[in-house]
Amino acid sequence: MLKLRHEPYEILNNLPRTRFETELRDYVKKYFIREYRELGDSQTFEVCQLVIRNAAASGFRGQKEVFYYLSISCMLGCAFAKDPQLPWVYGLVKNLEVAPLTRIENLWTTVLAYSRDVAGEDNEILVAALQRARTAGLESLPDQSGSGLLTLLQRIYPEKYAYQGEANLNQVMKHAAKVAQTFHLDTGKGIALLTLLMFFLGSEVYQDPLYPWIKTTLSDSTYSKSEQKVQVLYGKAMQYVDIALQGRTEAGGPDE
Predict the structure, then answer these.
(1) Alpha-carbon distance values, 106 to 61, 154, 217 (Å)
(2) CA dihedral in degrees (114, 115, 116, 122; nearest 10)?
(3) pLDDT > 70: percent of the chain
(4) Count of domains in the chain?
(5) Distance CA 169, CA 85 (A)
(6) Structural domain boundaries enclosing 164
(7) Count of CA atoms in the C-beta half-sphere (13 A) of 80
(8) Cβ of 171: how many Cβ atoms within 10 Å?
(9) Would 175 be classed as within a structural domain?
């Protein structure tokens, strides 16, 4: 989640359909520079194709609407519309009494306000949270879910913790526990690490094409013990944090 620059949307509705997916990819390349650099061309294209499908499933089929949906996906994760951390999103997305373009514009306005609250005007809140996550260390992850893990989340990212609320974060912990079982990572630290990743990047990080390194690591069967997989995943997460901190001012999208 990063601060966004202004980009007029009016011209986007008129793009020829045959160029649409390429325009989406180029949009990411221009305005979400760090994400594009990490993903590369083909993976970015995969993200854009998923965004088109997700947007259509929520009733957003106009090109302008999909560009908004893409920007929000890059900020909140590709599965933002069903993330238990963000229950307010569902109501805005599924309000069928409102025209699709108005719905997505209302959502965009709310997401920008959310971004200011939990990331800061110039990402200063997010940067501080990433730095705390970077210095916490693997040993800080509790050996079981519950109050200890909630305390860790609150310490690392108090602004987002306050916005999400304990009840929603309890749902995220339960979700992380189920996902951990699927990938044979159901140790205390494994569940805690998955919860932390979901807290920062979205509840579907384990299958989000924005973060292919997570899915690749979780699916890797060469690790004989869960503890090994936890260590490798944690190491990659810290590499991701380092890259994010280096390129913290590189972001994209329209402002208000």
Answers:
(1) 16, 29, 37
(2) 180
(3) 89
(4) 1
(5) 6
(6) 124-246
(7) 25
(8) 17
(9) yes
